[in-house]
Amino acid sequence: MFQRLFGRQRRANRTITDALYGEIVAAARQPAFYSDWNVPDTPLGRFEMLSVHVFLFLHRMRNETGAAREVAQVLTDEFFADVELSLRELGIGDLGVPKRMKKLAKMFYGRTMAYAEALDRGDRPALAAALARNIRPDSGEWPEADALAGYVMEADRHLAGQGIEGILGGTIRYPQQTPEQEGGHPS
């Protein structure tokens, strides 16, 4: 037990989750989301895109057991630690961080429920509505929400096709969105 907690296994798991989280962050930072699909390039907009990609990872891992479940939990913990660090970097003080973390966690889990329900039904319009409601709540009409919903559905299929062995080895690949793609369809 001590070997697992303090030894090589823990360092190996950390390396794997760091690699996975790096892929998630890279996917969430694809420039086309912000430049072509008008996701706000703000701390909250970046939180929303990171949340979408963490959700997609967790949705892929939802039926896995054993080590895969542990990796999913460690990655979730890493996500919230990263969010907390971002709050502190934005100048939120020690007294304000717990309150905001509670609010952001509630937001994240509410979104994951809405996204999962629409995704599991294959309901692109409901997914687009949920994305618009969460990512651009004050903008009224957001035509790019449908393209983002298409990306999320494609990313879900793409991740489902990746073997758990590769994921547990620290490799996960999201579809890349490039500016020249027509109609918002990911590669």
Automatic annotation (TrEMBL):
One Pfam family matching this protein? Ubiq_cyt_C_chap
> What's the superkingdom here?
Bacteria
**Which residue numbers delimit the Ubiquinol-cytochrome c chaperone domain?**
36-171
Task: Output the InterPro entries linked to this UniProt entry.
Answer: Ubiq_cyt_c_chap, Ubiqinol_cyt_c_chaperone_CPB3, Ubq_cyt-c_CBP3-rel
Concerning PANTHER family, the annotation shows: UBIQUINOL-CYTOCHROME C REDUCTASE COMPLEX ASSEMBLY FACTOR 1 FAMILY MEMBER, UBIQUINOL-CYTOCHROME-C REDUCTASE COMPLEX ASSEMBLY FACTOR 1
The entry assigns this protein to a family as follows: Belongs to the CBP3 family. Belongs to the UPF0174 family.
What is the protein's given name? Cytochrome b pre-mRNA-processing protein 3
Q: Give the source species.
A: Neomesorhizobium albiziae
